[in-house]
Design a protein that fits this description.
This protein is mainly β. Helix content is 7%, strand content 40%. The chain has a domain of 248 residues: 6 Propeller (Neuraminidase). The termini are far apart.
Length: 483
């Protein structure tokens, strides 16, 4: 089986597991939308309830509450796009009326444009493992198809961070196109040469929207006799100007027949590209993770940020000043064993924030820089089954100072599995995914863990209870535009 096919099969496993949609018996309401957005908590207090699973007890931090005007829900908390019944829905947070945008039940991966006016999403196609890439206004108007992409964890289509312009990789190469359908331009054609066409894989915009980094793979000649498949002749990372005027290699893998380099993103200053170093050609080895590296945009020797981590972009979160990176450190495919939140920089060894005996995921640095929210659970050494299911089911949202102090739980309700915290723009609220029984939902709470409320009743088709070794691809099911 070819490298690209093996990798695609792995990505397909992560992109969609068995469907399960879970229900919750009770919902805790806040008194009003304005109450949720009326304060910006710069230092979160101790959790309101003692969780059943407790790491090292944390001291009670001081609380400083700064009154702010009570903005409208849309301007304060933005809006969410989500998948329900296989269709794309949108609503303003916290309590806007839900609006259904599609009606064929075959859609996933909604992604907001920077302005919040447009959504890109993927729709099942008839052609093998491809997906149709669509764009639609948040009002439901002007829906149109763009091209076809592979369902590679959403890494083959991404909005510019500064304009409503979409970059995507189709079988024909790397393209950019305006949200309304105009200005389509091919930036990089699909590589040729060798015994078969090459591949362009994951892409990522630079923070200023001027460049697009991408993975490039070219195949060598078929060995004599034709009994063995061709080996990669070249593989690495490139960057192309968003207007197509320049195209440069950033890092070429020195052993393309044995390893690969997988694009992770950019540093906030746009001076470095991050990537994971694949240790082997098989999908099995790839799933066990690899080192996270950073290389200058003009090339040079890469720097190791952490020796091993799993290859998920939502396991990475930059500090607001762009100097430090919170990540999930630890090799091995099981997310319920030996996974720790660490803070890395280019200047030294990563600093671990997690306690021993825990397995922590999904770090999220608050925009004010004061806190890192994350998912915490007790670890278990197992390959799956009931032990893994029970450990995953005890996941809760926690917060910790970037220096590792004042660690405390934000959610603690038994029977809920809470994951993937995200901060509001003002650091006053946290959005997170929640599982219970057969329900997958989205909840919102204040930054101190108080006043939780359900904002999406059902995400469906939902994730399986274990996903891919405990990793649930929540980005397939919803996206938050923060305003």
């Amino acid at each position: 089986m070819s490298l690209n096919r093996r990798r695609c099969l792995w990505l397909l496993l992560a992109a969609g597991s068995a469907t399960a949609c879970r229900s919750v018996e009770a919902q805790v309401s806040i008194t009003s939308p304005a109450e949720l957005t009326a304060t910006a908590v710069t230092r979160a207090p101790r959790a309101t309830a003692t969780p059943s699973i407790q790491a090292t007890p944390a001291p009670s931090p001081t609380v400083t509450v700064q009154p702010t005007p009570s903005p409208t829900p849309g301007s304060a908390l933005g809006k969410i796009a989500y998948v329900q019944g296989g269709d794309i829905w949108v609503r303003e947070l916290p309590d806007g009326a839900p609006r259904r945008l599609t009606r064929d039940g075959t859609n996933e991966r909604p992604r907001w444009s920077p302005s919040g006016e447009w959504l890109a999403f993927q729709k099942k196609a008839d052609a093998g493992d491809l997906r149709q890439l669509w764009v639609i206004r948040s009002t439901g108007a002007d829906a149109h198809t763009v091209d076809v992409v592979r369902p590679a964890l959403g890494l083959q289509a991404q909005w510019s961070p500064v304009a409503d312009r979409l970059a995507y990789i189709s079988p024909g190469g790397l393209f950019v196109e305006d949200a309304g359908g105009g200005g389509r331009q091919q930036l990089v054609p699909r590589p040729g040469g060798g015994s078969r066409p090459g591949e362009l894989n994951a892409l990522a915009w630079s923070p200023d929207g001027a460049w697009i980094a991408y993975e490039r793979l070219e195949w060598g000649a078929t060995p004599p006799g034709g009994s063995n498949p061709p080996a990669p002749a070249s593989q690495g990372l490139w960057r192309v100007k968003a207007n197509g005027t320049e195209n440069h290699d950033v890092y070429l893998n020195p052993k393309p027949g044995e390893t690969q380099s997988y694009l992770a993103g950019w540093s906030p200053d746009g001076q470095r590209v991050l990537f994971w170093g694949g240790k082997g050609m098989s999908a099995s080895l790839l799933m066990d993770g690899g080192p996270l590296m950073a290389v200058g945009v003009n090339g040079g020797a890469p720097t190791e940020l952490v020796s091993a981590m799993l290859l998920h972009r939502d396991f990475l979160s930059w500090s607001p000043d762009g100097q430090q990176l919170a990540l999930v450190a630890g090799a091995g495919r099981s997310t319920w064993y030996r996974k720790a939140i660490a803070v890395a920089s280019l200047g030294g060894a990563p600093r671990t924030l997690s306690d021993s005996g825990r397995s922590d995921l999904f770090p999220a640095w608050s925009p004010d820089g004061h806190w890192i929210a994350f998912t915490d659970a007790p670890e278990t050494k197992t390959d799956g089954g009931d032990d893994a299911r029970q450990a995953s089911g005890r996941r809760r949202i926690w917060a910790v100072k970037p220096d590792g102090t004042e660690k405390h739980a934000l959610t603690s309700t038994e029977g809920f599995q809470d994951e993937r915290p995200e901060w509001s723009r003002d650091s006053g609220a946290i959005l997170f995914a929640r599982l219970q029984g057969d329900a997958a939902q989205v909840w919102l709470m204040r930054a101190d863990g108080s006043n939780p409320r359900r904002v999406v009743d059902a995400l469906s088709p939902g994730p399986s209870d274990l996903g891919i070794y405990g990793y649930l691809d929540w980005a397939r099911l919803y996206d938050w535009w923060r305003g």
